[in-house]
Amino acid sequence: MSSKKLILVTGINGFLGAHIVDQAIKAGYRVRGTVRSAKVDFARDSNSNYGSDVEVVGIDDLAYGDFTDALKGVEGVIHAAAPLVGKDTPENALAAAIDGATNVLRQAEKAGIKRFVLVSSIVTAKGFGDPSTAWTENDWVDTSREKALASGDPAFVYVSEKTLAEQAVWDFAEKHPNIDVTSVNPPFFIGPFAPNFRFTDALVSQMSTNSLAYTLLDPTGTPFFPIVLTIDVRDVARATVHALTSPPTSEVGRKRLLLVPQVASWKDVAEYIAEKRPELKDRVSVAIRTDSVPAPPKGPVDNTRAIEVLKLGSVNDWHTTFLDAVDSIIEAEKNFAKQGKTFH
Any idea what the CATH number is for the domain that residue 85 is in? Predict the structure, then answer.
């Protein structure tokens, strides 16, 4: 029997989830990953390169599903599964996010597991377009289930899902200090697809937040956010894995870790891609290349505490992040082209 520690990772088929598996294996863990039952065989095939270090289990209902068997022998949990924006009704999305996070956490605590890591988001601190110059771990978006449902805005529903789920996790953590909780709160994560990531079809939606990088490769593409607040997806995955061995809350205080290491203007990113990949110059968005919105002189988040607590060391800068993302997207395009398909 393997001496490697076993961890549970939810949502391993996702853009980030696949990277978490990859980083966890590199860090010496075994991974038990959850996906929907219909995708178990697909996920097993996708992760076959890791051999017996990755096993896959099917759980269809995050909010009410039974994780008893999935948690057996597990020493830590990374909860990465989350609804995508606008892919379900607001009621279902809120339930999956909020009740799903607390369901996994509650069952993990009951099973005697000592470490729980939540993949949250910077949008729990400040909503899209917030003009504040500094965001801290004490900031929260003002929302509720009722406000989210009444808004009719998929983006605000998503912000509410992440905010209310994280708040529910912290409420539970305060009452159950025997399980050490960390939340990692990144902005949009960009980067290459993990070696174990697979598309089921040529759908841009399956790129997750890498669809922002894909916008750069559309001559008519326009960003929905004025500046680029981003982090390399590999660094987010690494952060969640490092959180499993981070100093305990009793030593460093509540570990709600905002991590926004990269700020750039869309124009700078577009020009850099055109310079480094001249064969793609004609594809780069015209609107983005002529964008006049400058990046602020510094980002809104002080990353010092997050990087120190998580022992991350250096993180990738946006040049590496976006260039690797674009290269990975182009490779995926070429693979689908062999099947006569294009992204849509």
Answer: 3.40.50.720
Neighbours of 61 (CB within 10 A): 13
Per-10-residue mean pLDDT of the chain, 344 residues long, equals: 89 97 98 97 97 97 94 98 78 93 98 98 84 88 96 92 97 98 96 97 94 94 87 98 98 97 93 97 93 87 97 96 98 97 96
Q: Return d(Cα 20, Cα 150) in angstroms, integer.
A: 35
Range of the domain at 132: 6-191+232-260+301-312
| pTM of the entire predicted model | 0.96
The answer as to whether 225 is a domain residue is: no
Tally of domains within the chain: 1
Q: Cβ distance 196 to 15 under 8 Å?
A: no
Q: Tell me the CB-side half-sphere exposure of residue 146, using CA atoms within 13 A.
A: 0
| 8 Å CB contact between 201 and 213 | no
- Report how far residue 205's alpha carbon sits from residue 225's, in angstroms, rounded to the nearest whole number: 18
Q: Could you tell me where the DSSP H helices lie in the chain?
A: 15-26, 40-46, 90-94, 100-110, 145-151, 154-175, 211-216, 233-243, 249-252, 266-276, 286-289, 304-310, 318-337
In a domain, 76, yes or no: yes
